[in-house]
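Annex B. Sample input.
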Amino acid sequence: MVEFEPVMLAPIAGALALAFAGYLTFKILRQSPGTPQMRELSGTIYRGAMIFLNKEYLVMVVYAVIVAIILALVVNYQTATAFTVGAFFSALAGNVGVRVATKSNARTAAAAKRSIGRGLMVGFSSGAVMGMCVVGLGILGVSIFYYLFGDPQIIVGFGFGASSIALFARVGGGIYTKSADMGADLVGKIEARIPEDDPRNPAVIADNVGDNVGDVAGMGADLFESYVGSIIAAMVIGFTGVTIGGVALGQTDVVVLPMLLAATGIFCSIVATFFVRVGKGAGIKTLHAALNKGVFGSAILMAIASFFLIWYTVGYLEIFYAMLAGLIAGIVIGLSAEYYTENRFSPVQSIAYSSQTGPATNIISGFSVGMISTLVPIIAIGAAILLAHHFVGLYGIAIAAVGMLSTLGMTLAADTYGPVADNAAGIAEMSGMGQTVRKRAERLDAVGNTTAAIGKGFAIGSAALTALALFAAYIQRVGITPEKLSITNPPVIAGLFIGGMLTFLFCALTMRAVGRGASLVVSEVRRQFRTIPGIMERKAKPDYDKCISISTSAALRNMAPPAALAIVTPIAVGLIPFLGPEALGGMLAGAIVTGLLLAITLANAGGAWDNAKKYIEEGRLGGKGSETHAASVIGDTVGDPFKDTSGPSLNILIKLMSMAALLFVPLFI
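Annex B, continued. Sample output.
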C-alpha cells in the first residue's frame, strides 16, 4: 500500500480544478443561446476569436521551437522540455477560456432576459472555467516536473515558457482589442453618433472579438504565469535553505510548501464559487456584493486552512504570517482598484464632472486619478514585503506572493466575468432584445468593468512580489554580494537607469502599435460608411470580416518587438563585459519599480475613464449624445490602450525579464 504524502495534494487539486471547470462548462452549454440572431452573432465572435488565436499561435510555435533549441544547447534538455510544456499549458488555458467565453456571451444575454441574477451566474460560471483551468494546469505542471526532476531550477523553464506566451498573448491580444475598440468608438460614437455596439458599425464584431482575445486569453495567460512564477520562485529560494530563529528548516518541507499552499487555495476557491448568489434587488451594489462574497470568502477560507497546513507541515507560524501578509495585500490592492475605478465613488465621478468642460480636462482629471491610485497599492506591497521579510527573510517574500495568488481560481473567475458581460451587452444591443434587457446587460457590464480593473490591480500587485522573489533568486544564484549591488557601484547605477527606461520604451512600442491599428480601423469604418449605401438606414450589412482582418494583421505585425525587448535585453546586459551580472541586477530592480508604478497608473486611469463614461451614459450630466458624453468618450478612448494593452503587459515584462535572468545564469558566470 502506497503511503499518502502531502505533496500529492498538488496534482489532486489540479485535477479537481480541471474537473470542476468541465462541470461548469457542461452547465453553461445547457443554457439557452437565445434567438437565431443571437446565436449568429455569438458564432461570428467565436470564429473571429479562433481565427486570431490560430494565427497568433503559429507565431508562438516558431518562437517556442527556437527558444527550446537554444535552452537545450545552453542549459539542458530538461529545462527545454519544461519550457515547452509551460508554453503549451499557458496557451491551452487561454484557448479553453476563450472557447467557453464565446459560447457564454449569448447565453448570458439570454439569461439576463429572465433575470439579472441569472445573467450574472452564467457570466460568472464562464469566468470560473477560466480561473479553474489556469490554476489546475499551473499546479499540475509544476508538481509533475518536481516529481520528475526534484530540482526547482529546472522548473524555472516551465515558468519561462508560461511567461513568454503570456507576453505574446497579452501584447497581441491587447493590440487587437484596442485597435478595434478605438476604431469603433472614434467613428461610431463620436462621428456618426450611433450607440455603442450598434450593428451598423463595421468594427463592432471585431471589438467584441477583442474582448475575448485580450481580456480572456491575455489575462488568463498573464495570471497563469504569475501563479506558476510565484510558486517556482518560492521553491527556488527554499531549495537554497531557510532558517527561522537560527533553526534550519527541512529543505523538502520548504520546497514543497508553496505547492501545498496553492493546492489549498484551489480547494478554497472551488468552495467559494458557491457563495456567489444574487438575492433580491438588481442594483450594481447588489451585483458587486454577490461577487465579493466569493472573493472575500475564498480569502477567509484560505487564511484558516493555511494556518493548519503550515503548522502541520513545518511547525513555524512565521511562514503563515508571511503568507497572510501577501493575502491581505492582494485584497487591499483589489479594494483600492475598485475605489478608483467604480463610478459609485468620487474619483470616477470627478472625471465625469470634468468632462463638462471638454476632453482636455477629462484627460487631465483621469490621468491624475491614475497617478494618485498608486499610493495605496505601494503601501500595501511595501508593508507585505517588510512583514514577510521580517518573519522569514527572502523566502517570506516569495511566500507572500504565493499567498496573494493562492485564491486565483476565484479572483480570475470574477475578472474574466467582465469581458463575457461586455459581449453579452453588445449582443443584447445588436440583436434588439429591448430596453429592459439592454439595461440589465449594461449593469452587468458596468460591474464587469470594475472586476476587470480589480483583476488588473491584483495581477500587477502579485507581479511585483513575484518579480522581487525571482530577483532575489537571481541574486542568490549568481552569488552577488550586497556590497556589489550598492548604488555606488557604476554598473548597478547604469542597470537601474536601463531598467527604468525599458518600461517606458515598452509602453511606447505597445501604444504606438495600438495607434497604428486603430488608424487603419478608423479608415476602414469611414470607407464603409461612405461607400456602402444603406448602412445607416439598416438596409445593408457592414463588412465585419474586413475590420477583423485589419485588427488581426495589426496585432501580429506589432507584437514581436515588445516581446523581444523583454527577452533579449536581460541576456544582452548580462553578457556585455562592462555591464555583466551586477548591472543586470540593477536593471531588474529599476524595471520592477518603474514598471509597477506605471502599470498601476495606466490600468486604473483607463478603468476610471471607462466608468466615467458609463456614469454619464446612465443619464447624468446630459447623458448619451451630449457634449459632456462626447468628451468622456475621448477620455475612454485614450484610456483603452492604457488599461488593456500597455498597463497589464508591464507586469509580464518585469517577471519575464527576471525569469530570463534566472534561467540564463550559466551564461553570465
